[in-house]
Every structure is written in structure tokens, then in C-alpha cells.
Amino acid sequence: MSEFILEARDVHRAFGQTQALRGASVAVRRGEILSIMGPSGSGKSTLLHCLAGIYTPNQGEVWFDGTRVDTLGETKRTELRRDAFGFVFQFGQLVPELTALDNVALPLLLAKQPRRQAYAQAAPWLERLGLEEHGDHRSGELSGGQAQRVALARALVHKPRVLFADEPTGALDTLTGETVMNLLVTAAREEGTTVVLVTHDVRVAAYADREVVVRDGRAVTTPSSAVA
Ligand SMILES: Nc1ncnc2c1ncn2[C@@H]1O[C@H](COP(=O)(O)OP(=O)(O)OP(=O)(O)O)[C@@H](O)[C@H]1O
Prior knowledge:
Elements: E1 4-15, E2 18-29, E3 33-37, H1 44-51, E4 59-64, E5 67-68, H2 74-84, E6 85-88, H3 100-110, H4 115-128, H5 144-156, E7 162-166, H6 174-191, E8 194-198, H7 202-205, E9 210-215, E10 218-221
Parallel strand pairs: 3-8, 3-9, 6-7, 7-8
Antiparallel strand pairs: 1-2, 1-4, 4-5, 9-10
Helix pairs in contact: 3-4, 3-5, 5-6
InterPro entries: AAA+_ATPase (IPR003593), ABC_transporter-like_ATP-bd (IPR003439), ABC_transporter-like_CS (IPR017871), ABC_transpr_LolD-like (IPR015854), MacB-like_ATP-bd (IPR017911), P-loop_NTPase (IPR027417)
GO molecular function, one term: ATP binding
Keywords: ATP-binding, Nucleotide-binding, Transport
């Protein structure tokens, strides 16, 4: 079994005339928390989306746990994302009409789990993230930090192998952001979840085990943490 759970190999991706990635390679170890840093527009989010099988590269390869992802059909990639990956984005992207608990249970319901079982699995996550009093609040009524904690619970409820987080604290004040990052890191460590975290905030990146910097569409691993 490879030491790496996820790899991008020489990935290129363009949007029209814009070359977002120009040969980015990155290898993520099992169970590690990896931050992807770099200037605005350097290609961080595009790299995350390619690793997660959301975008397909124009050139290069993406591998997840021995499976080549970029050549899978849309249906298989959708299944992979649903079953093996969790996502947290800058703005929680919760369904505002649903309660916090409904939002957390949603991935399980979409995966056709029986209702009772889905809710029984979702409820402890609210407790774990300090949201037990907010379970029946509509997500549109929550504060930014509370909503982001619900988004985190929703991303982790189906026990994903990899959690992808794109600027998960970008819309939060520093203190709230720290709370969310502490919860994210604690839960990921407890669950053994690998985390790929895009951020331009060094305080957020400091939660990671290792850092990759993206510049002009290429990924550079810092020498101190070079991938063997
Ligand atoms: N869906 C898209 N359509 C068109 N251009 C895109 C798209 N996504 C990204 N780009 C372009 O690709 C380049 C890389 O964007 P990307 O979002 O990956 O950078 P980033 O490093 O995550 O930036 P930021 O830190 O500002 O979020 C940018 O020039 C951006 O405008």
C-alpha cells in the first residue's frame, strides 16, 4: 500500500485562455493534514478541485488510493466524492430552509440510509462540535461560525477518507476561525481523516502537518517537508 492516499501528477488545467495549472504535482500522505498555500489566482482552488475529482485535468493524472480518478466517468467520480470525500468551503453552503440537524443528516439521506439511522448518526456530530442547542435552528438563522461548524459536521458525518477544505475560515473573524480550525483538526485526527486545506492565512496553515505552495500553477513543496 502506498504511503500516499492522494496524488496529482503533472496536472494541467485551463479555463479558456487562462492556464490555471501548468504541471502541478502533489502527494498527500495517509492521515496527514496538508495545507496548500500561495498567492491569489495561483491555482490553489483549481488544484483542490482536481484532487477531489470535481474538475478533470487537461493533462496529467490524479490518483486516489490506487484508483486513477481523472479517467473515471462522471457517475463514478460523483460516487467517489459522495462516498469517500467530504467538503467544507468558505461559505458553509448549507441548505438555508433546513435545520442544522437536517443539513448534517443530508449526505446520509442522499446515500439512501434509512431516516432514523441517518438522524441517529447525525445528532452526535452536533454535540461533538458544540451545536447541540442549535439542532432545530434553520441554518439561515445561525451565525457564521455556527454555520461553518454545521458544514464541518455535514462533511464528516459519513466518515470520509479525505476532507477537502477550501478557505474554511475565510468568512470568519480570527477567533471564530480558530475555533473552527481546532474542531476540524481534532475531529480529523480522531477519525484518521486525511485533510487537504487551501488557505492563504498562515495562522490557518499552521494547523497543518505540511505545506505545499502553489505559484503560477505549479506546486512547490518546501524543502523541510519535501516528499520523499
Ligand atoms: N471556473 C473558472 N472559470 C474561469 N477561470 C477560472 C475558473 N476557476 C479558476 N479560474 C482562473 O484560474 C486561475 C486560478 O484560480 P484559482 O481559483 O485556482 O486560484 P486560487 O489560488 O485559489 O485563488 P484565490 O486565492 O484568489 O482563491 C485564476 O486566474 C482564475 O481566474
